[in-house]
Amino acid sequence: MSNNNDDAISLLLTALRFAADKHRDQRRKDRNASPYINHPIQIADILWKIGGVRDVVTLAGALLHDTLEDTNATPEEIQTLCGVEVLSVVNEVTDDKTLSKVERKRRQIEHASSLSIRAKQLKLADKICNVYDIAHAPPLNWSRKRRHDYLQWSEQVVAGLRGVNPALEYYYDEILAQARHRLAYEQENVRTFRVGDRVRHPKKPEWGLGQILACTDKHLRVFFVGAGQKLLRQEKTLLARLDPQQAQNRLLDDLKISSEQKVIGYQPLPVLIERFLHQYGEGFYSESYLKTYRQARISAHTAMQNYLNQTTFSQLLREKNYQEICERSVMIIETAQVLSDIEKISLEEGLQHPAQQRLFAEKLYQFLFAEQAIEARFNAFVAGLMQMNAAHWRIVTSFLFITYPETDILLNPDIIPLAAELCAFNLNYHTQPNWQTYRQLLTFADYLAQSLVDMRPRDLIDVYAFMEANVTLLQPLQK
User: pTM of the predicted model, to two decimals?
Assistant: First the structure.
């Protein structure tokens, strides 16, 4: 390597070390408060890569261009370390801070055309960096109008710099156009975003589909299926608004976001799946899963088919053998292991008297096998259980769940509301059994079944178990 090259590298390293020391406690005013030294390094990089500048004095000047203006550096220090030529360039691009901001900005416009070639190129690269940052990483307290005004002012300054380096000028024009486009896009979004809009974040595809929950001039609160709630700055966010017909989503259609204290809180579905598979390596086909969640319910389903199928049930009704129906019903429910101790006692006490046994037997048969619409059958069964003081969610739904696991599901008050909370699904839950809540649960179960299709759930026993397992696994973590 020649001596000239050695001298050039030595000068640049000296300038860089001096600038890094002087700017060591300074930060840019962007949201990330990035180290200030990044800015002069970026200017030197643009001069080298975009402008093709190989003049070491210009590059050293770029590294030092803010030291006199924004640090305690002195002209004597710069001259001693880097020479008279470098100091001259730095002096040319240094504003007089004894003047007002308005006057300093006016003088930059006025003096731009009279700067040296070195200073003009440095100034161009500086404006390129600043214009880019104004669009993509502006100071936190800058309004959109202030950012727009800066772009206008920078263009006036650059007008006096033109003719010095076509590559830098072309790059400035590109960056300026992009910045104006971004600000215009942001302004359009502020005017047109509405609560309920479906959106995607172009830079966060893993967040998935989102829905606007609230919007102000400065912020958007958005719920993303893959990430939960996010508070985004209007000026920093370029969300893509979607056509409602192309952005349908069962979860967002029934989204529930509450300001109340959450017991568990939203968890994206991929996280729930990962947690489930971590616990049960083969998913719904793991031996430990089968033993924990499926075997008892399948045994109850088999018992229902053997001992209270429609033919057997109707025969027992014709024989008025209501007690036998009740005993078989209790046996099947106990096999499923879905009722709490209090609910077992409530059901057994409600079936002590012959009149109540008949009421239960007839209502249960109609509930399971009548051709009436399910809503009417559901409401009639709940009314019958209320007469027996046994109208609990698990009692109401367990018989459907055991008899028709392909289409019906258990509503366990200790599991389902928390599972809905995990998925931010609006269950419309009430402690008193009612058709509206159960209908929402069926919608929720269908949404989960479709979302878990790659795990091959056999029926809603598996879907319910997925909810139960996740709630059970999470609850200890909340304590």
Answer: 0.54
